[in-house]
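PROTEIN DESIGN WORKSHEET
SECTION A - STRUCTURE
LENGTH: 623
TOKENS:
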């Protein structure tokens, strides 16, 4: 079945997003390469034991197999219908897609397709009937052409004939003679997955203003690995006044993870490659059913890597700690293609992507992609999933969130801090939380890290707030001491922004306006000279996760806790900070700028060699 996913992005407008993925996918179909399809080679899985799929044989000789998994090559192709974009729209789209593709390619490796990637034609479209007698030579081959057959499509995109294998008709059941109906195309070189891009104002885009993009996978190889798909980007969202580069990148990554395997329609095709005792030349075995209902009736993914990742994340030894799947709008016993929001707030594969600063490419999602059996996944590059860290096997259950036993949930409708402490927040619920409440970023001015956010001057503000890049949200009741007739007045506790600096893991100091730097003991509270009230010091939230930093809309920002350049050099955020400080000290500001410029130029040149976005001006345009 063709899997269609629609991702709705919340833009902090107060509108709750809705994902219509499960509504639409049942309406469409997909093409899967047959293992015995004439003219096509057998595919390989990530063990590298067989030749790669979907290319014509050369003089009947099989090509060499790939030696080991390598970063997946995702080729992008812009549909000709999208050629009327303005220059600004095109640049925004290309920058977001390029960064998303680069990110996914750095995370997932496959046994690469040897030779050009050639997609299959849908036999149910070009063929009027198949030979069904299994004793005949041409069993399951086409016996008569469909005169109405025109072309292949993937969602709203027409697949160029040059990307497709040919199709033949076998007029007699036992005769090798065949008639060519369509010749095979050249295929695409250096590609393991073909991503068609369609930028258009579609009915779906116009129907819901908070849809940024939606996607589909439309072709798989004989072992079920997706090899082609479409991402439709709503053109209206590329306009400058509403466009967010970071949100666009995260959306495309979300869509790519869906079409590459995180989909309920593909769960049953996942493969088990964990056995080290497989015979030479053997394939990974099918995983079989991977989703089951737990004792409370909630559907979960039970695969080895997912269970292990959750045990580590929640600090639990529960051997059956499966990955909760979203149950909103899902019939009992059925599954969703998203993680349960109560358990996976902030995950890139949660049903709702809210503020882009809190979206994480988390270890549980990467574990699920590892368990597809199609990819080797660099799980070391996962971003910290702070939500629920160390909270135990019952975290996210309705009883946990409602009995106030977890610091990640809240009650009432007061104001406080978002759990990453980058934003002020309001205690709210939504359709996915099923009555549980969390602190969500305020609509306007909630970012502590934005220097321009304070609405009052320092002289007017009595709470001591300081906004800036190193500021974070703290629960505080501080108010400047009043020497008038109300010296004992204490304000209510709410989220307020103060500067912080790390002195060690889970250790930090804070700076309130007009005060000195003060040690803030994690899990405790402090008072500030010149102020009434106190400040609570969050435990295990600050100075513990090096990748939790204010977001950047810079095009070249890689959304991971560590960054690996195209040549494999591993550099952490702290290393870059130290390098920047050292350069400025020893070379001066001018030399530092020159050095950084040279690095960026070199990086861009390298990236341009790896990521290519092709624009189709004709259905048969030459690659």
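SECTION B - SEQUENCE
RESIDUE ASSIGNMENT:
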């Amino acid at each position: 079945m063709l899997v269609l996913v629609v991702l709705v992005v919340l833009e902090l407008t107060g509108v709750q997003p809705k994902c219509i993925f499960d509504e639409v996918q049942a309406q469409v179909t997909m093409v899967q390469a047959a293992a015995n399809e004439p003219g096509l080679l057998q595919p390989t899985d990530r063990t590298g034991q067989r030749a790669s799929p979907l290319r014509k044989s050369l003089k009947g000789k099989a090509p060499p197999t790939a030696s080991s998994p390598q970063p997946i090559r995702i080729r992008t192709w812009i549909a000709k219908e999208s050629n009327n974009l303005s220059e600004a729209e095109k640049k925004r789209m290309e920058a977001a897609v390029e960064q998303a593709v680069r990110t996914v390619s750095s995370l997932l490796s496959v046994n690469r397709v040897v030779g050009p990637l050639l997609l299959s034609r849908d036999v149910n479209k070009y063929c009027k009937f198949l030979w069904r007698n299994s004793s005949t030579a041409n069993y399951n081959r086409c016996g008569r052409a469909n005169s109405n057959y025109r072309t292949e499509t993937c969602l709203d995109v027409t697949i160029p004939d040059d990307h497709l294998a040919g199709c033949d008709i076998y007029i007699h059941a036992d005769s090798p003679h065949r008639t060519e109906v369509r010749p095979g195309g050249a295929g695409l070189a250096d590609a393991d997955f073909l991503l068609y891009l369609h930028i258009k104002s579609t009915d779906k885009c116009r129907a819901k203003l908070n849809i940024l993009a939606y996607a589909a996978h439309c072709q798989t190889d004989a072992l079920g690995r997706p090899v082609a798909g479409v991402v439709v980007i709503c053109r209206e969202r590329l306009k400058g006044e509403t466009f967010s580069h970071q949100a666009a990148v995260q959306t495309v990554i979300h869509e790519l993870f869906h079409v590459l395997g995180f989909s309920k329609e593909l769960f049953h095709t996942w493969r088990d490659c964990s056995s080290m005792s497989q015979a030479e030349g053997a394939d990974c075995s099918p995983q079989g059913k991977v989703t089951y209902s737990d004792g409370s009736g909630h559907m979960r993914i039970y695969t080895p890597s997912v269970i292990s990742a959750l045990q580590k994340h929640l600090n639990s030894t529960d051997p059956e700690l499966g990955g909760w799947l979203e149950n909103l709008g899902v019939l009992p016993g059925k599954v969703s293609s998203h993680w349960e929001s109560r358990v996976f707030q902030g995950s890139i594969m949660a049903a709702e992507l809210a503020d882009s600063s809190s979206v994480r490419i988390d270890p549980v999602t990467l574990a699920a992609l590892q368990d597809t059996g199609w990819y080797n996944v660099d799980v070391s590059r996962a971003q910290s999933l702070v939500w629920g860290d160390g909270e135990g096997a019952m975290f996210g259950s309705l009883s946990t969130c409602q009995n106030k036993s977890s610091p990640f949930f809240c009650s009432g409708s007061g104001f406080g801090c978002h759990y990453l402490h980058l934003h002020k927040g309001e205690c709210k619920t939504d359709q996915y939380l099923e009555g549980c409440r969390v602190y969500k970023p305020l609509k306007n001015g909630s970012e502590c890290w934005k220097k321009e956010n304070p609405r009052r001057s320092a002289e007017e503000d009595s709470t001591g707030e300081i906004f800036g890049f190193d500021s974070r949200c703290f629960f505080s009741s501080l108010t400047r001491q009043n020497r008038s007739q109300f010296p004992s007045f204490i304000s209510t506790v709410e989220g307020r922004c103060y500067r912080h600096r790390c002195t060690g893991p889970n250790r930090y100091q804070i700076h309130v306006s007009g005060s000195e730097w003060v040690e803030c003991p994690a899990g405790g509270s402090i008072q500030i000279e010149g102020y009434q009230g106190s400040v609570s010091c969050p435990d295990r939230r600050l100075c513990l996760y090096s990748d939790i930093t204010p977001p950047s809309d810079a095009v070249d920002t890689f959304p991971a806790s560590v960054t690996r350049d195209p040549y494999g050099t591993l550099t952490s955020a702290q290393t870059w900070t130290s390098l920047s400080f050292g350069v400025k000290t020893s070379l001066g500001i001018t030399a530092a700028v020159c050095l950084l410029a040279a690095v960026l130029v070199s990086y861009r040149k390298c990236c341009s060699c790896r990521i290519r976005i092709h624009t189709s001006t004709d259905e048969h345009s030459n690659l």
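SECTION C - NOTES
The mean pLDDT is 81.
The domain at 3-124+188-260 is CATH 3.10.170 (Elastase; domain 1).
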